[in-house]
Design goal:
single chain, seven-stranded mixed β-sheet, binds pyridoxal-5'-phosphate, six-stranded antiparallel β-sheet, Aspartate Aminotransferase, domain 2, alpha/beta, 505 residues, Aspartate Aminotransferase, domain 1, 20 strands
């Protein structure tokens, strides 16, 4: 239950379940604590009560009971209170009312996320890739899916669409509200003003990487990729007939410890590796699998190189929501006017809010020219389109689900610390650099010499599926990626299994 104040009034929010119905409930009490109004924003029969009388007034068919309640109170809170005979029906400014209603709305939409309450038996019934690729005795800790329950605003918007059989054609891209939700979020989080007309809605980030490769380079042209890297980056280069220009992230090692700064972008070898046929930089920030969040000075140096070499930058920022304390996500396009004009920012709600199956992504173009070139290369219809559910869910994520995200990020940060501590004490032969973002630990298993690869070893001997380092680029075969986006209890089971396998090898 949460409480909010407005002048003499108290607003109490809780989440109720009664007689097969339920949802967020808002009670508004006067200065003596007497309940004057109650809005029960329930799934089947949303209604409100004047006083705490048993009579209630049904909302009727509204698209979203919380939106309806908040807009009614914004319009006429005083009028509703006056109807109950309440004398505390004014005495606040419009700004105060607005601030209280925003907080009330956020509480109504976001009950506690219950991240610890994950049932392995239920996870095993999921049909998604993570839980449906390996036999059930293997514990999956590989592909980028989280085990947590959905953010309530997303769950609810999907439930409501299904309840109303609202799965018709998606509305026209200009009217989805998705671009505007993206614009508002960029302004709020990064003080970045984006023009919604420069935003394309696509099905997924990898699709945008492929289209970008086709749009901004010719077969045989080079594309820079910082390795180790999320494997589809390689596919996007090779399958479009472009040449890979590999730029290895370096992780200097002093004794047994990695250097404090972690994986670094060393631009000198890159400068030497590129030529006039290098057209595109495929950039991943925050970086998967290392979890690096590149600092402003690093980004500026890279942007300067992109300017010198006249590259187009395809900046995959899908992990931007999962950045830990002490680090800051800086969209590449915000670095300078020049960087903006050559950058396609590609992102989605699918990582941060864990809805990758809903296939919805946005690409923002920093200039009309790169936007035009992107749209010319493949007919729009061939790109496919998003479904209504992805659209609803993404807007619900970006507009309403930040409290859930904050809870998840805090939980993941503790998991991150736990993994690092555990590996350093129980698996000291494995080097680990604390990730600054993402829910991946990039495990450097070189000293263990696990054959044929660490991921294969842990699959066979620990019954845990990790991602194989070899897929992240040549030279990374002795690494493995661990996904720690699960409950602490399940994470502990995974870690214990890894440690036992190493002890018994
Ligand atoms: C860096 C990066 N880009 C893209 C994706 C996939 O995005 P999408 O499912 O939208 O293609 C992932 C998934 O893990 C990722 O880590």
């Amino acid at each position: 239950m949460s409480e909010h104040r407005l002048g003499p009034l108290r607003f109490h929010v809780d989440h109720r379940h009664l007689d097969g119905d339920g949802g967020p409930s808002l009670r508004i009490c006067d200065r003596s604590g007497d309940e004057r109004l109650r809005f029960d924003c329930f799934r089947f029969e949303p209604h409100y009560h004047l006083d705490d009388a048993s009579d209630f007034v049904a909302f009727g068919p509204v698209a979203d009971p919380v939106t309806w309640t908040v807009s009614e109170l914004r319009r006429d809170l005083g009028g509703y209170l006056a109807r109950t005979g309440c004398v505390d029906a004014d005495g606040w400014s419009p700004d105060e009312l607005d601030e209280t209603l925003r907080a009330v709305e956020s509480s109504m939409r976001n009950p506690p996320a219950r991240l610890d309450e994950i049932d392995l038996a239920v996870l095993k019934t999921r049909l998604s890739e993570k839980w449906n690729t390996y036999p059930s005795e293997i514990h999956p800790a590989w592909v980028a899916e989280m085990d947590f329950p959905l953010a309530e605003p997303i769950r609810l918007v999907l439930e409501r669409a299904l309840d109303r059989s609202d799965i018709g054609y998606p509305i026209a891209p200009n009217e989805t509200g998705l671009r505007e939700a993206f614009r508002d979020r960029c302004l709020r989080l990064y003080d970045w003003t984006v023009d919604p007309r420069r935003v394309e809605i696509l099905t997924d980030v990898v699709q945008a990487l492929y289209v970008g490769m086709l749009a901004y380079s010719e077969p045989g042209d080079g594309a820079v990729v910082q390795t180790s890297i999320y494997p589809p980056f390689f596919d996007a280069v090779r399958e479009t007939g472009r040449e890979l220009v590999e730029h290895r992230l370096i992780a200097p090692i002093a004794g047994r410890e990695m250097n404090r700064e972690g994986y670094q972008l060393d631009l000198e070898p890159l400068r030497a590796a590129v030529d006039e046929r290098t057209r595109v930089l495929l950039f991943c920030n925050p970086h998967n699998p290392t979890g690096r969040v590149f600092r402003r000075d690093e980004l500026e140096a890279l942007a300067e190189l992109a300017r010198e070499q006249d590259w187009i930058v395809l900046s995959d920022e899908i992990h931007q929501d999962l950045v830990y304390d002490g680090f800051e996500h800086i969209p590449f396009a915000t670095l300078s006017e020049d960087a903006a004009s050559r950058t396609v920012t590609i992102t989605s709600a699918t990582k941060g809010f864990n809805i990758p199956g809903l296939r919805t992504c946005v690409a923002h173009f920093g200039s009309a020219e790169i936007h035009r070139r992107f749209n010319q290369v493949v007919p729009r219809h061939v790109r496919g389109g998003i479904g209504l559910l992805g659209l609803y869910a993404t807007v619900a994520a970006w507009r309403h689900s930040d409290p859930w995200l904050a809870e998840v990020r805090g939980y993941l940060q503790k998991n991150r610390d736990h993994v690092v501590d555990f590996v350093r004490s129980e698996l000291p032969e494995i080097r680990i650099q604390p990730p600054e973002s993402t829910y991946f630990a990039w495990l450097d298993c070189r000293d263990l010499e696990l054959r044929p690869s660490p991921a294969r070893f842990f699959y066979d001997k620990a019954a845990v599926a990790l991602s194989d380092g070899g897929n992240f680029g040549p030279g990374w075969e002795a690494f493995a990626r661990l996904n720690f986006a699960t409950s602490r209890a399940l994470l502990d089971e995974i870690l214990e299994k890894l440690a036992k396998a190493v002890r018994n090898r």
